[in-house]
Amino acid sequence: MTYDLTIIGTGPGGYVCAIRAAQLGMKVAVVEKRPKHGGTCLNVGCIPSKALLYASEMFAQAAHDFPALGIVVGAPTLDLPAMMKHKDDTVAANVNGVGFLLKKNKVDVFFGTGSIAAPGKVAVSGEDGKVAELETKNIVIATGSDVTPLPGVTIDEKIVVSSTGALTLDKVPAKLIVVGAGVIGLELGSVWARLGAEVTVVEFLDRILPGMDTEVAKQFQRILDKQGFKFLLSHKVAKVEAGSAGATVTVEPAAGGEAQTLAGDVVLVAIGRRPYTEGLGLEKAGVAMERGRVVIDDRFATNVPGIYAIGDVVRGPMLAHKAEDEGMAVAEILAGQHGHVNYGVIPGVVYTEPEIASVGKTEEELKAAGVAYKIGKFPFTANGRARSMRATDGFVKVLADAATDRVLGVHILGRGAGELIAEAAVLMEFGGSAEDLARTCHAHPTMSEAVKEAALAVDKRAIHT
Fold first, then answer.
1. Which pLDDT band holds residue 1 (cuts at 50, 70, 90)?
2. Alpha-carbon torsion (48, 50, 53, 59), positive or negative
3. Would residue 444 show up in a list of annotated catalytic residues for this protein?
């Protein structure tokens, strides 16, 4: 049998690509090295971390927020195995759902390690050592990313852990040292801080959440300070010495200076992710690479005819929803349609409490590009629904072009920010203005009214502040 399309990897990009291609009438095969579908996101990333973030948030609310609402339940007791079961059940439901969808759409599944034997040929190496070869007209590389290691530091997933190990700890560490103040480090640090860990974050840069709006990051750091986080910014990790009872981390000022040591029960290395292309045979196939990523054109094609790539292995943010959109787009392109991805409107979310959500340009990016812009801001302290939920931390910021009023970026720090950002993304997808958003009726009382008020504030006519 010759397939129209064979996809290596069934993470969010791969399985969505497979389903869309099947919908468009192609005969599709997928190759997955794990025994389960879903890639990093569903198995050891987005889904399990959100399950633990939600559960730990409920634990923290029961411990700290219930009395102010007139709910008296006493101090909550942590049942960590039950919390982990909730996480595992959530993962299983999502993973099994992907398997069902692939079967429903008549996608052939091959478990094993995939590699490109030649253009039009994908080799699948099973655990039994047997190798099957698939004939295919087109190949999509969707193998995702892996944890970026810290040079000289061995990750054993027990004392020194990656995000994977941080999702499976069998007890709450008394002291957790997080290396890296990016999204993953702050999310997983939040989980264990809520459950009782003392969390110290070491970051090489002089700020948290690099790449996000600076004003948002600064206010969020103050919120995390109140939650008990400790930060060592502008510091680098020089050495990690792990033993059976914990680890000693030696840190130094990034600009040079006297070293200090930190003692921790667990050290989480969260300095980013890197494309996973090991064993794919890309060099042999002649596929061009640049700084570890597969080089593609605006149609997701590599320099080798019939070989395409999407998701974390190519340029752009390493986000599951970006990979999904690319998967749909390349399937439609292969079917003769006009699939595309608008990279200017890809939301990003930090699932802490409060959440951070962003879409479009930051102030720093607009300044660097020399774009004249207007700002509208509105705090959740002035929002009735936020007050009723005791969720007044944060604000909404709308950035609009000074000449045309077109919205260029929206940044939200607040409860449910990940849901609130969707209307900003829709507005920007249609080239909408701050005026358009300001004149759209929003239900009262809702958190979303803060988005409208921030849009009104662009023209200095917010009502409630």
1. confident
2. negative
3. yes
Q: Out of 37, 235, 442, 444, which one is annotated catalytic?
A: 444
Give the per-residue SS3 of 110-179: EECEEEEEECCEEEEECCCCCEEEEEEEEEEECCCEEECCCCCCCCCCCCEECHHHHCCCCCCCCEEEEE
Phi first, then psi: give them for residue 395, nearest 5 degrees.
Answer: -165, 170
Would you call 57 exposed, middle or buried from its count of C-beta atoms within 10 A (0-12, 13-18, 19+)? middle
pLDDT of 423-441, one tens digit each?
Answer: 999 999 999 999 999 999 9
The size of the chain, in residues, is 465
Q: In the chain, which residues fall in CATH 3.50.50.60?
A: 2-146+274-334, 160-271
**d(Cα 350, Cα 79) in Å, to the nearest integer?**
26
The verdict on whether omega for the bond into residue 445 sits within 30 degrees of 0, i.e. cis, is yes
Give the Cα separation of 360 and 348 in Å (integer).
9
- pTM (2 d.p.): 0.97
Q: Model confidence at 52, in pLDDT bands (50, 70, 90)?
A: very high
Fold of the domain built from segment(s) 160-271: FAD/NAD(P)-binding domain (3.50.50)
Instruction: Give the CATH number of domain 2-146+274-334.
Output: 3.50.50.60
